[in-house]
Every structure is written in C-alpha cells, then in structure tokens.
Amino acid sequence: MSRCLADRSIDHVVLERGEVAHSWRTERWDSLRLLTPNWQSRLPSFTYAGDDPDGYRTLPEIVAFISNYAKSNAAPVHSHTRVTSVRRTEAGYLVSTDQGDWGCRTLVIASGAFNIAHMPAFAGRVPRPVAQLTGQNYRNPEQLADGGVLVVGASSSGTQIAHEIQRSGRPVMLAVGEHIRAPRVYRGKDLEWWMDAAGVLDERYDQVDDINRARRVPSLQLAGTPDRSTLDLNALTASGVEIVGRLAGITEGGKAQFAGSLRNMCALSDLKMNRLLQLLDEWARNKGIDGAVEPPQRLPPTSVPDEAPLGLDLAAGKIKTIVWAAGYRPDYSWLDVPVIDRKGMIRHDGGVAEAPGLYLMGAVFLRRRKSTLIDGAGDDARELSAHLASYLDGMPLRLTA
Known about the structure:
The protein contains 9 helices and 22 strands. The chain has 401 residues and is α/β, with parallel strands linked by helices. It has 2 domains: 2-115 and 330-392, 3-Layer(bba) Sandwich (FAD/NAD(P)-binding domain); 117-327, FAD/NAD(P)-binding domain. Strands 8-17-9-10-13 form a 5-stranded parallel beta sheet, with helices on one face. A 4-stranded mixed beta sheet has the order 5-4-3-19, with no helix packed on it. The longest helix has 26 residues, at 262-287. The relative contact order is 0.17.
C-alpha cells in the first residue's frame, strides 16, 4: 500500500510497532517456510530474483525479503511506534502512539488478520502441570518438556507443528477439526501454480455466494518442504502421529473430550480436495494443456482409525504439553471507531470500511481469495489506493472488477 500511495504522490507514513516484518521476526516457529513458492512472492515493482523459484522461503529469508522491499521503496516507516488508539475527528482520524500523535484524512489498517491465537474458554480447565503454547509462541521441540504433546488444529500450522514434534521423538496426538486436504504437487506442478493459472486465487469477494463463510474456511494442509512432499493426515499417521476428533471440551476434572465426527470430517475434507482437483482438471482440458502435464491422479482416502478415542485424562501424565493451532483473530482493541461487529471484525466492503476514509488491508479474502498471501497484497493495494485517492479528491469511486 505504501508503494501504491507513493506512486500516486500521496503523502503518508507507515507506523510499525517493532521492526519491519515484526510478526515474522517474533511470532513464528523456527523451521517455518512459506507455503507459497518463491516465484509467487510478487509485489508492486518487486519480485523474486533468486535461482530457486520453486523453493519455499525460510523464516530468515522471509524477513529479508520484506525488509528489502521496504528499503527498495524508501518506505516512510516509523519503527518501534505502537498505536494505542484511533478515533474520528472532524478532519479525519487522530492516531495516538507511544511516540506521539498523528492526524490524517485517511487511514489504512494493515495490522494483519492473525494477531491473537485462538484458545477456547475451556483451555482454563487444562491441569496446571500441562504446559500450553500457541502457534505464536511455539518455536521448536526443544522448548517442550519430555512426554506427550496434544496439538489442537489440523490446518497448515497444526500439521507442520505436529510433524516436527513427532520427529523429535515425542508422542503426538493431533485433534482434527474442519480442514482442507491438498496435495503439494499435482500433475507435476505445484498446487499453487494450478490455482494461480486457473484463476482460483483471483476469485473476488463479490463473486462468491457466501463471503462470510468463505472467510472462515481453514487454510489448505500445505507445507513448504524442500522435497515438496504432501503433509496430510495419512502422512502424519504413517510417521506415528495419533489422530483424534475435534477437541470439543475439557471437563472441570481435566478430561479432554473429542468429538466423534473424525471420520465425517476427513470424508468431507477428501471431498473438498477432489472437487478442487476436478476443477483444475476441467481447466486443463479447456485450455488444451492436458497433454503437457502429467495425467490426473487422486490421493487415497484419509485413513481413519476404527476406534479413535473420545476422551483423554489430561491429569494422568501422558500429555505434558498442549499446542493450540486452532486459528487466529485480529486485534482491534486500539480502534475507537464504530466499525467493529459482534465477532470483533471490521465491517467493510472489499477493504473499504464503514467509516469515511478508513481502509483495511491483509484480511482474509479481503478482495480476492489470495488476499492474505504476499501475492495478493499488490492487487488489493492498487485498487484500494485508487479508491483512497478518489476519496481525497472528493470524488468517491465505486470499485469494480
């Protein structure tokens, strides 16, 4: 967004609570890699320039990429400036920070969609001897006590963390809720290549039947490993991870209760995956490239144990650590503008918030399915900066495809 505003000669500043790429520096586990290939990191006037376009960036490489982008644009970043409150004024907005106040006519909120790791209320019933971590403060298996680990959540973060902990020699149990299975490579090409080429990632928010439902869909079970392997529940089971149903609750006595819907959840996930692959196959046929790629194939159904446990006594000592990987929510506690709905989300229309001159970037399915990917930020910023410029000129613009 800063680059797009600069291209339009719109004076602006970027307020950053820490260093550039702060959340990548401080809120990710050590072995994390991007889920998208290097070639897919396309930002306005800045793309991947290395010799491994099909690889997946490591955490230090992600930090370097974002930092270099800020430097290349000479972005007006004020680092170590934490916003404490935002409120409306007659002229626009007053942004209060721990380094002083700023007044502005327009404001872009780009604080991210993944600020606070979700922990259910019943997490308070976990027995005290059992340590609790989230995807934000988990770093590596060495920080865990010896003994069993329960990972809650089976989307991309949960599956990767469960796999890494299992490889450290600790027994791992994975509580599986709604998830979307996906092959890393399909018909000889990365799945992201297919979704990019077929236009799946460019699907717009105003083209789906239920955008609220679409924004709640979990991330694909993808992992950016050097060998481009598929990390699904079958792979985890083969490595020794025990899968159980969704963690439905914890009793006052510390007994975990797992839902009996594991088989149905896995069958639904397989169905969604195969629908996606069918869509990609149809696109390949329509484009006449069937003969240029490998033949269609399908993964075997997810293997589900005949009698997955429905309960576990957390006080019995088998589980020493719980890692919550059950999603995130944004933090708008500092935003004193009446645009927050009852679920704590900003009410907006494709990033144009329900307050004059207020915009949102980086939210799930903001304007496109790819909005939370690095690759989606540029398209969203170009369109929203056009709307912002029109607003400043006193000529409201209706955003269209």
